[in-house]
């Protein structure tokens, strides 16, 4: 009976792969029977058959196992430690599918020490067993930040990095799954990755950035981006910069539609570092590459520009050098667009540039259309910190040269200051004081130019 049921599942799986819309409807009695077969009191042969049954079932139908999922997880985790036939692989495969279920299921897998069991399985000398276990761990890590943290506490990242450096890895049919799992573990950056492990990971990922497999190449680039986002005082960024050929390859991947998003994130994380690290990227020729990037990557692009604009005088000069691209037009379009996130990044870029530019470059920026962004950003009420920073930047401009007050008026900036005083209850008092000071200075400037306005009472 067991063999017949397994054969039926195999046939249904074949039809499903052929695109037929088939639904596996299984009775609770049948599921319960196989769950009993999973228990340790039965032979390895029976357990292996039951594991294969659930591995196949979970690919097609999750509803049949909802009521018994906790017991099923416990038994599968036990079976993943048993080195018998294909039992380990099938148990890891079943857990891989369960980890795609709602968050509560991943929590159950973790609570029943599933990560530790899969880690033991990941040490297996059989490539297929090991890589299935790593795939399952990757699914757990992808569920949520807390699951990702639980995975990071294991030693699986070290195991994956070791696999990357094995000669046979370049020929493995499971490369995609392993690198995908690695990116899920690294996602969001981490303060806990030791420097030696970071460098080993970068060395292992670099050759994959040249792989013919587009998906693999993209995931490997994301891996580099996440490593560059490790919160260890810029040490990981330095490792990216010092890994021979890596920065140049990241710039090259900006021309690849399959990797441009990941490459932009990696470069953005690097220029979010200190001025010296940013300069290395500028010297490598990033600015002309950015200017030619598609508009679909606008938010990431404006974020990078904002970080460069927060740099030194020479970096701001390079950013707005016409030979490197027309970033003024790009920021104006971004600042006037409908995407609030992009508009905010454009606002930060303008604020950073006006705050940090030399006097000469400040004159140039104010003579360009860059100030057109300001009223659009000042009308936003979602980020008081940005508004405070932008008003402060404008105050610095007028300290350098008061002649820009009429320019502010022509761009509608003075009107935005008045609106801050009228409607800006959510704005901090210092910013409101600055806005009021701008208006008063404008009145005084008008008095100096035209004399006080007087009225004669006519009887």
TrEMBL record:
GO biological process: protein transport
Keywords: Protein transport, Transport
Family annotation (InterPro entries): ARM-like, ARM-type_fold, Armadillo
Pfam families: Arm (PF00514)
Superkingdom of source: Eukaryota
Gene3D superfamilies: Leucine-rich Repeat Variant
Entry similarity comment: Belongs to the importin alpha family.
UniProt-recorded name of the protein: Importin subunit alpha
Organism of origin: Parascaris univalens
């Amino acid at each position: 009976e067991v063999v017949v049921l397994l054969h039926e599942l195999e046939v249904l799986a074949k039809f499903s792969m052929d695109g037929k819309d088939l639904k596996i409807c299984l009775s609770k009695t049948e599921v319960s029977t196989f769950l009993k077969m999973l228990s340790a009191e039965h032979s390895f042969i029976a357990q292996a058959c039951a594991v294969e049954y659930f591995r196949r079932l979970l690919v097609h139908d999750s509803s049949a196992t909802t009521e018994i999922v906790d017991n099923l997880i416990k038994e599968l985790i036990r079976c993943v430690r048993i080195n018998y036939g294909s039992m380990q692989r099938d148990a890891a495969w079943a857990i891989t599918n369960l980890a795609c279920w709602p968050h509560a299921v991943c929590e159950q897998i973790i609570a029943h020490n599933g990560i530790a069991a899969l880690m033991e399985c990941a040490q297996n000398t059989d490539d297929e067993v090991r890589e299935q276990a790593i795939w399952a761990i990757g699914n757990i890590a992808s569920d949520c930040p807390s699951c990702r943290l639980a995975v990071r506490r294991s030693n699986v990242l070290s195991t994956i990095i070791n696999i990357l450096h094995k000669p046979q890895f370049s020929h493995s049919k499971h490369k995609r799954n392993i690198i995908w799992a690695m990116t899920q573990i690294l996602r969001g950056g981490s303060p806990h990755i030791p420097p030696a492990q970071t460098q080993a990971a970068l060395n292992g990922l670099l050759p994959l950035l040249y792989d013919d497999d587009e998906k693999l190449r993209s995931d490997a680039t994301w891996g580099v981006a996440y490593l560059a986002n490790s919160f260890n005082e810029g040490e990981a960024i330095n490792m990216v910069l010092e890994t021979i050929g890596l920065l140049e390859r990241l710039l090259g991947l900006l021309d690849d539609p399959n990797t441009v998003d990941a490459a932009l994130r990696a470069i953005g994380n690097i220029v979010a570092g200190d001025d010296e690290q940013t300069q290395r990227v500028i010297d490598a020729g990033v600015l002309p590459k950015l200017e030619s990037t598609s508009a679909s990557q606008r938010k990431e692009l404006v974020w990078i520009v904002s970080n460069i604009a927060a740099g030194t005088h020479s970096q701001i000069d390079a950013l707005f050098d016409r030979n490197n691209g027309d970033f003024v037009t790009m920021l104006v379009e971004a600042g006037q667009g409908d995407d609030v996130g992009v508009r905010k990044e454009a606002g930060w870029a303008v604020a950073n540039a006006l705050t940090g530019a030399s006097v000469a470059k400040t004159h140039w920026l104010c003579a360009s259309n860059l100030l057109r962004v300001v009223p659009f950003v000042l009308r936003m009420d979602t980020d008081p910190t940005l508004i405070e920073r932008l008003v402060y930047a404008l105050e610095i401009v007028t300290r350098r040269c008061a002649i820009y007050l009429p320019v502010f008026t022509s761009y509608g900036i003075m009107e935005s200051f008045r609106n801050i005083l009228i409607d800006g209850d959510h704005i901090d008092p210092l910013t409101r004081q600055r806005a009021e000071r701008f208006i008063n200075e404008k009145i005084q400037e008008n008095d100096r130019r035209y004399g006080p306005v007087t009225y004669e009472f006519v009887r």
